[in-house]
Design a protein that fits this description.
Order of helices and strands: EEEEEHHEEHEEEEEEE
Low-confidence stretches: 194-203
Shape: globular
Mean pLDDT: 80
Distance between the termini: 12 Å
Oligomer: single chain
Structural class: mainly beta
């Protein structure tokens, strides 16, 4: 059950919210529960736009998040929630600088709200992280869009100086309604998203793996549908990995 709150607009700011609830047949011990309706996450998103005489020049995004069932979801909650970043915009948005904790620019991740989906795309098992702390440079040139980021690689909102870091790029093109691109990733990242969480004890070590990824993505809206697809190839250390994802959305009404 996904409830999207009302959106509040003003000249310089926007406030949105969402509540994600799920019915779980099994608990975290593998036992069947008759009544296990859990709140996966609730969020309030605040976006403030700094404006000058020449237009917008910066944006601040803060996401306040909470999970009443944090013990159950501790191994994944902080990979999905907690956006906190500042964007400094260049001329006409052709080059922008982003600092903070943000969704990494790999594949389709930046272009839809994946953390509120029941079926998740491949980042959980393949990339090992969805959000990370770091710096990103991105923008567009004519019909092309580009993003380059360097992040900590930990992914759960904490910083580790022991990790080698994570370099990601995406080069895409927009052709009418069709968006497609190629992405690359190299560096250290958790073996899988569910390997760690904010509530793990400090002595429990994160299982970092040196990863190389090459990905291809596509997104196309058709009437009330939006189709998405990704294919990823690469290596975890000396192990070859790969996979693909196909999915989409259906717009029941303009608000759902």
């Amino acid at each position: 059950l996904l409830l999207m709150g009302a959106t509040v607009y003003a000249r310089n700011y926007q406030i949105t919210g969402a509540l994600d609830s799920r019915f779980m047949l099994y608990d975290n011990q593998g036992k069947i529960n008759r009544d296990n309706f859990l709140i996966h996450g609730a969020e309030v998103n605040f976006k403030y736009i700094f404006q000058g005489e020449s237009g917008d020049w910066a944006t601040l995004v803060l996401q306040a998040s909470y999970s009443p069932d944090f013990d159950f979801f501790s191994r994944e909650f902080n990979y999905h929630y907690g956006d906190k970043y500042f964007v400094l915009k260049g001329p006409r948005g052709q080059i922008n600088l982003k600092l903070g904790k943000f969704v990494v620019p790999f594949g389709n991740l930046q272009y839809y709200i994946s953390h509120l989906l029941i079926l998740q795309p491949m980042f959980q098992r393949s990339l090992g992280t969805r959000e990370d702390i770091g710096i990103e440079v991105g923008g567009y040139f004519k019909d092309y869009e580009y993003d380059v980021s360097f992040t900590n690689g930990r992914g759960d909102g904490r910083i580790s100086l022991k990790n080698e870091g994570l370099f990601i790029f995406r080069l895409g093109r927009i052709n009418g309604d069709l968006r497609y691109g190629i992405s690359g990733l190299i560096g250290g990242a958790p073996e899988g998203e569910y390997m760690i969480g904010m509530m793990m004890k400090e002595e429990q070590k994160i299982n970092y793996v040196h990863k190389n990824r090459l990905g291809f993505d596509i997104q196309y809206p058709f009437r009330e549908f939006t189709f998405r697809g990704e294919a990823i190839f690469g290596r975890d250390g000396d192990t070859n990995v790969g996979g693909f994802y196909l999915g989409g959305d259906y717009e029941v009404t303009p608000k759902i």
